[in-house]
Design brief:
Length: 204
Amino acid sequence: MPNTTSDENRAKAAASLRELLAGNRRFAEGDPSPHVVSAAQREALLAGQHPKAVLLGCVDARVPPEVVLDQSVGDLLTVRTAGQSLAGVALGSIEFGVRALGLSLVVVLGHTGCGAVLAALSDDHADGHLGELTGEVADRLAEVVGADPVRATGANLDATVGALRAMPTLRTPAGHAPFVVGLLYDMGTGVVAVSDDGGLLTDG
């Protein structure tokens, strides 16, 4: 879906994406920024939140978005679900960032070794809400079930990005669609790769 948005929103989203990638480079190189939040900064945050982006990440404890992207308090509106599932209240939380806060950048952060993807590929199906969650991920992977986990992880990330881009209710107060981008975190190297930049880094 083409993104009908202003040049200002595009520039802001591109700058935010570059800041996140620069933060990951600092993290991967072992030289993150200090994130001591002073009393004055906490007081300033009481006036309202102005994050750089909405970020949908996995619940995996080894992939905390603010840490691997070297961001501080207030920088990201983070939604975390296993396998970046869009079930339950996740979509409403993402909509809040775009519709209420007017954020023009939505980041989907996948990662290697994702347990939810492995569970979705498995023949053993969980019951309860966990089963609903992995079932949703499995539906996205219907064409790659049986493929290797690396390919499945990428397919899951791509499908999630595509689903968010197709949402007609994901619009800023000005009526613009946000830029939805896909990032893949390698747990072995600590490096984030851009799987889909939404045209922000390649189209100007």
